[in-house]
Specification:
By secondary structure, this protein is α/β, with parallel strands linked by helices. The chain folds into two domains: 93 residues, Elongation Factor Tu (Ef-tu), domain 3, CATH 2.40.30.10; 141 residues, Rossmann fold. 18% of the residues lie in helices and 32% in strands. The strands form four sheets. It has a seven-stranded antiparallel β-sheet. A seven-stranded mixed β-sheet has the order 13-12-11-10-14-15-18, with helices on both faces. The chain has a two-stranded antiparallel ribbon with strand order 4-5. β11, α3 and β12 form a beta-alpha-beta unit. α4 packs parallel to α5.
Length: 269
Amino acid sequence: MSWSSATAKPERRSLEVTASERLGTYRLLRVLDPGGVCAPGQFAMLASEHRWGGGQDERPFLARALSVARHNGEEAHFLLEDVGPGTRRLCELQPGERVLSVGPLGRGFRPPQPGRRALLVGGGVGIAPLMILQDQLAATTRALLGFRDRERARAAELMLDVHVATDDGSVGHRGTVTGLLQRELEEDREAEVYACGPGPMLEAVRALCSRFEVPAQLALEAPMACGFGACFGCVVPARDGSYLRVCVDGPVIDAQALEHVGEYAGAPA
């Protein structure tokens, strides 16, 4: 098994919106992208083609970096949450409108090491890159997903073999998704963890995997301005004292390369 990260030219493409489906508090945005390719874990910089700005003078927003949630050869899917003016505009898009996309960008996930089973761990809208990853793996690849509440937990419908945790206990396990992960690792240490979610969740995953000596690949979602490594706005500190640019050295980074995952290096909860 092998996945190769696709390389995009630094140019924008105009893609037609085919659907915007509500899943609790989230939106699944689908755009027509025939012939597009994407490796699990890669992302795109998205902006709406029209009304992409705010304020009295309608100054443009920065494009939003979003993990590709799924690609079936004809459509690309993105999982959105309204957390600000840019994502709000993307959530408003209707079929027939268009988005400007640059991607796929970044380094994606690598297949599990021989003899290890993949174990997916996601939190909130951060489950997006795990969807396309599960598509590439066996359908029985287990996914541990954490959400704040029942409304957000509806996004679990997008994946298979799911075990859910909610902060309020309204669905599945009451507590954090890392509580589910600890149980899994206590029973079987022959796993390789693939995770994406809020920064504190990723830090807990990193620490758990270090404790159990289990390899982990973390998809970080630090705020980005360019997506090409030019602005250095998404750097995170590495264990060796250097800095990694999430957009080009990641977004998928080995957990062992990181001393700590900061609060703002993850997806919204």
